[in-house]
Design goal:
The chain is built from three helices and six strands; from the N terminus they run βααβββββα. It has helices at about 20-25, 30-35, 125-150, and strands spanning about 5-15, 50-55, 65-70, 75-80, 100-105, 110-120. The radius of gyration is 15 Å and the shape is globular. InterPro entries: ASHA1/2-like_C, START-like_dom_sf.
Length: about 150
């Protein structure tokens, strides 16, 4: 775990070809399956917003909202979002966003997936520590989720 307060970094080696891992990331419906958000009929397009209801138990009242940042086929996918924006009665739009970057690297026996979420130091102080803590734990689980998804599809 990175001890910085501004960024979360994770990586996982997935024993699958880069093309297969890329599909799990870049295909919106597949992404939603492992990430826990209903994205049926959605597409990821750089510069465009994407949203859908969260399907993770206990968070179904929340709409997942991101703006796709960069999409470089089979190499990089990134988006911006408001971290741990879980109160549907709060308007987070005035807050800075964090940047989530997934990078893929082919290895001799699979794919190395690197995840970085940065920009927490710009989040309002009253939300910063909790957003960092919750997303840090969330990314631990999401790395397991994508590995399981790729293995089973």
């Amino acid at each position: 775990m990175n001890t910085s307060t501004d960024r979360i970094e994770r990586q996982i080696h997935i024993k699958a070809p880069r093309t297969k891992v890329w599909r799990a990331l870049a295909d919106a419906e597949s992404f939603g399956d492992w990430f826990g958000v209903a994205l049926k009929g959605k597409r990821f397009v750089a510069g465009e917003p994407v949203e859908g209801p969260i399907t993770y138990p206990g968070y179904e009242h929340i709409t997942w909202r991101v703006v796709m940042d960069r999409i470089e086929p089979e190499r990089l996918l990134s988006f911006r979002w408001h971290p741990y924006a879980i109160d549907p009665d709060v308007d987070y739009s005035h807050e800075p966003t964090t940047l989530v970057v997934f990078e893929l690297e082919e290895t001799h026996d699979g794919t190395l997936l690197r995840l970085t979420e940065s920009g927490f130091d710009r989040i309002p102080p009253e939300r910063r520590a909790e957003a960092f803590r919750m997303n840090s734990g969330g990314w631990d689980q999401q790395m397991v989720n994508i590995e399981n998804h790729v293995a089973s599809h």
